[in-house]
Amino acid sequence: MVALAALVAAEEGTIDLDEPAGPPGSTIRHLLAHASGLPFEAGPPIAKPGTRRIYSNPGFEALAERIALNAEMPFEEYLKKAVLSPLHMGAVQRGTPAAGLQGSLDDLVKVTREVMRPTLVAPETLAEATRVQFPGLAGVIPGLGRFDPNDWGLGFELKDGKRPHFTGTLTSPRTHGHWGGSGTLFWVDPDSGLALALLTDREFDDWAKESWPALSDAVVREQT
To answer: Does some domain include residue 43?
Structure first.
């Protein structure tokens, strides 16, 4: 959701993807692509921008702060204006922009459909957001381990050549999406035209590493 809001902000000129933001040497693009050098949790940078892929909650909090500053309104208000209201979502922000958006499965399906067929931004903008940014960076995905390369778009995790992957073995390398510690995921495979949106009542753990790929493969088999 935050990434979609950032893409809307970029298209309307509220932000520039390559303007400075976050630690010295970092830009909004670095923050969106988890390449700013900021750590997973709060703390000083642990790498130079553009040298490692470090999934960073503080990075997305810094991103939201910059959008709020440029838009001259609280980020929660901008998120509602740019994404939630246009998509007729009932989700509400509780906690930080990096985590805490609460909504229904219907809300998640609406976002998944938006990623499949964008209406908030131009298709070319979403295409850029789902292409690898800062190619070749290695790094760790929390809970899953290290990947080299650990490809990421502008807020979207990219399957590419990652093995194993939460989207299973039958989705194409162009599959993109996201998953969270709350037991939530979505993915879109533009090659097959399939997508999956999932909410659970169990926090991410070893169960997800087994069940999510199996479910994803079952969805592909059912539809092909």
So the answer is: yes
